[in-house]
Amino acid sequence: MTAADAGKWWKEELSAFHLPHVTCHLHLLLLIQKKKMELYPKLIMDALATVRYPGTGKNVVEMKMVEDDLRIAGMHVSFSLIFDKPTDPFMKSMVKACEAAIHAYVSKDVEVEIKTKSLQAPRPDLPDLLPGVKNIIAVSSGKGGVGKSTVAANLAVALAQMGLKVGLLDCDIFGPSVPKMFHMEDARPYSERVNGRDLIMPIEKYGVKVLSIGFFVNPDQATLWRGGMACNALKQLIGDANWGDLDYFVLDTPPGTSDIHLTLVQTLPITGAVIVSTPQQVALADARKGINMYQNDKVNVPILGLVENMSWFTPAQHPDEKYFLFGQEGVKRLSEEMQVPLLGQIPVVQDICQSGDDGTPAALDPTSVTGHAFMQFAARVVTETDRRNTQLPPTTIVGTHK
């Protein structure tokens, strides 16, 4: 309908009414609404040009996010929005914003259908997120302060010393300590294009591929994230990183039982868990909770065994002397009670603290007291993992309830 035709139509319609000016105007609007609207591409594109992508100051049209597949059929409009990554955090909000713009600037009666596409290939579907990883070991503890991260770091290094391909993921989003233990506080991972995806390249040191949220945040500032944001960051470190082929993927989990642990068992088929505790009763009580979490019917991750950290204190000058500062063989008794293997006992020696602060894990020196203990512990982990793989079926990821 041209402007001239519209003017003629309005006059013909209004001539039938002898009403005051305001009433005629309202009637005119009603008549216009009754007249079926004709949609055309420019009308839709002009509406979409009002939608800006957050943080850029540019609209979706000038960013070429609207694919050239716009289709109009009566009052039905369909098109695709193109995003750089399939994990774009604004994907859902942008779709809603485009729908709202068309309803606001075109008509509320328009039926809008928007599909999303990404320039990068999507993550592999679960549970095949890490096809090159043979064994996934979760190092866990019921409470903090028992040396879990020290055990995880030395386990990874000891496995690498044995000639195995090893990866270590620091899963403690709120208190990452692995960068310090590997003396990589200033490291900044980069990304590479691999099979159509931009993947984070883990940093390799001591033969171990390492990633931690500590590489991406200011170490002097607290990470004030809600659980959902922390879990999404963890998923990126797992699924958007180039871990490649690994014999062992060691997960340094945060203390306790939390959202992070649930995310891990819902994302990865964990081969087995190693529970870390000190001999004292207060730590053993929480270790039981850690064991129960993995043995829960809904989780069903095998316990490879327990490791007792800080079993005794041995002075460097007197390696044959033992002082039981936190009780004696508490974890051994717990392992017998829970019917799970005792994988090792790690003594407290002054150089283990120094090596952790210096970023040189004790397992790098198998001749030292603690280095030897960690190598024996790693060998036992390999034995128990092989036994678990022979006797039990592969672990399945825990289903999510939507």
Quickly list its features.
36% helix, GMP Synthetase, Chain A, domain 3, single chain, Rossmann fold, 402 residues, alpha/beta, 20% strand, three-stranded mixed beta sheet
Describe this structure in words.
By secondary structure, the protein is of the alpha/beta class. The protein folds into 2 domains: 41-118, GMP Synthetase, Chain A, domain 3; 133-391, Rossmann fold, CATH 3.40.50.300. 36% of the residues lie in helices and 20% in strands. It has 12 helices and 13 strands. The protein has an 8-stranded mixed β-sheet, with helices on both faces. Strands 1-2-3 form a 3-stranded mixed β-sheet, covered by helices on one side. It has a two-stranded antiparallel ribbon with strand order 6-7. α7 packs parallel to α8.
Summarize the structure.
It contains twelve helices and 13 strands.
Task: Describe the SSE topology.
Elements: H1 3-14, H2 21-34, H3 41-48, E1 71-73, E2 76-83, H4 91-105, E3 111-118, E4 133-140, H5 148-161, E5 166-170, H6 178-181, E6 191-194, E7 197-200, E8 203-205, E9 208-212, H7 227-239, E10 246-252, H8 259-267, E11 272-277, H9 281-295, E12 303-313, H10 330-338, E13 342-348, H11 350-358, H12 369-391
Parallel strand pairs: 2-3, 4-10, 4-11, 5-9, 5-10, 11-12, 12-13
Antiparallel strand pairs: 1-2, 6-7, 8-9
Helix pairs in contact: 3-4, 5-12, 7-8
